[in-house]
Amino acid sequence: MFADTYKTIAAPSCGCYSEKGSKFIAHAFPVSEENSVKMILADLKKQYHDARHHCYAYILGYTKSATRLNDDGEPSGTAARPIYGQLLSRDLTNILVVVSRYFGGTKLGIPGLIHAYKTATEDALDKSMMIEKYIMERYRVTFNYAEMNRVMQILKNENVKIEQQQADNQCSIIFSVRMKSADSIISLLKKIKNCKIDNP
User: Fold this and answer.
1) For domain 5-133, which CATH number applies: 3.30.1460.10, 3.60.10.10, 3.30.450.20, 3.30.230.30?
2) Three state DSSP letters for 152-187
3) CATH class of residue range 135-198
4) What phi and psi values does residue 128 have, to the nearest 5 degrees?
5) Most C-beta atoms within 10 A of its C-beta, which of 36, 133, 177, 190?
């Protein structure tokens, strides 16, 4: 059966790695949209304005459909790829990791860079709390006030979260439901007279 959960981190975390005077500071963030990524990157570039590189990788969406890797001037494949590899190996999504590098004067070479970015990322992720989240779908149900009790009985399911409610002659409720329960909840609601369901 299709899994309706995904793994991410509960809160931001920080890790660090030093090699031959160079310092690699890794920050991991739970994110769900690209706008958040842009804001976080802008903040980190201000905070660590004297760092030479800000390399990052992110994965978004429960299908992991949106990904981006950026080496920010480091040799291609030496920074963002090892960061991304750590996210994949832990099966994470809705996550951004940025590693800010302070250059210590001695070049580390390709294998040294790969090891440094990987290890800094590992440290940040080791300090994170991994959590499993449900994939939710959002619906709006519109119905006559007389059907309120029947609708509410169906929506009292443990996998349903009511987000917004409007009670009038014509009532509407916006709710999110765990993906695996969506079909059965929707089919029960459709059995109620004059009950309409759409996506808000």
Assistant:
1) 3.30.230.30
2) HHHHCCCCEEEEEEECCCEEEEEEEEEHHHHHHHHH
3) alpha beta
4) -90, 155
5) 177
In tens, the pLDDT along 121-163 reads 999 999 999 999 999 999 999 999 999 999 999 999 888 999 9
CA distance linking residue 14 with residue 59, whole number of Å = 18
Return d(Cα 67, Cα 108) in angstroms, integer. Answer: 27
Structure-token pair, residue 78: 């030496």
Q: Single out the residue of 33, 28, 22 nearest to residue 92, CA to CA.
A: 28
> Count H helices, E strands: the chain?
5, 11
The dihedral built from the CA positions of residue 124, 28, 65 and 184, taken in this order, carries a sign that is positive
pLDDT in tens, 176-185: 999 999 999 9
